[in-house]
Amino acid sequence: MRSLLIILWSLGVWPLTGAWAQDLAPRAYIITPVNSNAMTFTWSFYTGGLDFNGVVPVKNGNGTWNVPVFSVYHSLNFFGRSANVTASLPYAVGNFTGEVGEIGEHSVYRSGLMDFSVRMSVNLIGGPAMKVQQFGKWKQKKILGASLKIVAPTGQYDPPRLINWGINRWAFKPELGYSPRFGNWVLDGYGGVWFYTDNPRFFNIPYPVPQSKAPIGSFEGHLSYDFRRFGWLKGMRGWCSLDGNFWWGGIASVYGISKPDTKQTSSRIGGTISLPYSRHQSIKIAYSDGTYSRFGANYQNLQVAWQYSWIGRRFK
């Protein structure tokens, strides 16, 4: 039973490593037994346009960058409800090009830490806190959850540099997630808002200036399917999903003067497949591309993640 539950759990639990604010995350509100744990290493490859938010003189910005992310996950009992906490630390390496004002085409290389993030999720309807034995008898019908993600300004940031891995401001995202199951099908829908503190030293020539950013609203949807066979491999449990999102807002202001032309309106679509291959280990592969983007950020993303999971206080 214990082995089976660990495998079943690994089908759906993938910590939100999201090195970038609008990455896609299917099954983000899945229920797991109390004291479930996971360590995840994710490698993400990005290529495409850059988002300078329309506030700096850069045209045709493009880049190719790699983001390895280490994440840890732990589920707990929160006043009788199922809850979990995920912490993620990304590192990034990339090359970028663009036409900078009168300088013309310019290229740069960057390597360094990105901002540390932590997310707490709590189930509100449909998922009480359960031990392994109770979880084995439980079946998902409809669940409603709430989460709060916090991004701390710990990443590499140098005001004179236009390209930085850190955002030099705190970011907070409260979100609600609804997920009904219909047999082997699971439908996910999330709605949230990103809130930002001011960046006191935003890039500007000749001196950095304080910049604020309006909230960004986001909606995310996923349709996933559980399967018991992958190609010719019988008994290979897993799931696959079709993913999409849409976000808008984020008008930038300098010295309190807003710039309406910096409003973002963008969306992405992609797919994900998750496969466990041993008692504790599983892999996930995901791909997404931009479908519409007002400012750059119309990048392609290939993501591969390896996860080791276990239940209990001991790592084994």
Note down, in words, how this protein is organized.
- This protein is mainly beta.
- It contains two helices and 17 strands.
- A twelve-stranded antiparallel β-barrel has the order 1-2-3-5-6-7-8-11-12-15-16-17.
- The protein starts with a helix and ends in a 5-residue tail after the last strand.
Secondary-structure map with pairings?
Blueprint: H1 2-10, E1 36-49, E2 58-78, E3 81-100, E4 104-113, E5 117-125, H2 132-135, E6 142-151, E7 171-182, E8 185-196, E9 199-202, E10 209-213, E11 216-230, E12 233-249, E13 252-254, E14 257-259, E15 264-276, E16 281-293, E17 299-311
Antiparallel strand pairs: 1-2, 1-17, 2-3, 3-4, 3-5, 5-6, 6-7, 7-8, 8-11, 9-10, 10-13, 11-12, 12-15, 13-14, 15-16, 16-17
Keywords:
316 residues; mainly beta; four-stranded antiparallel beta sheet; 17 strands; 4% helix; globular; disordered N terminus
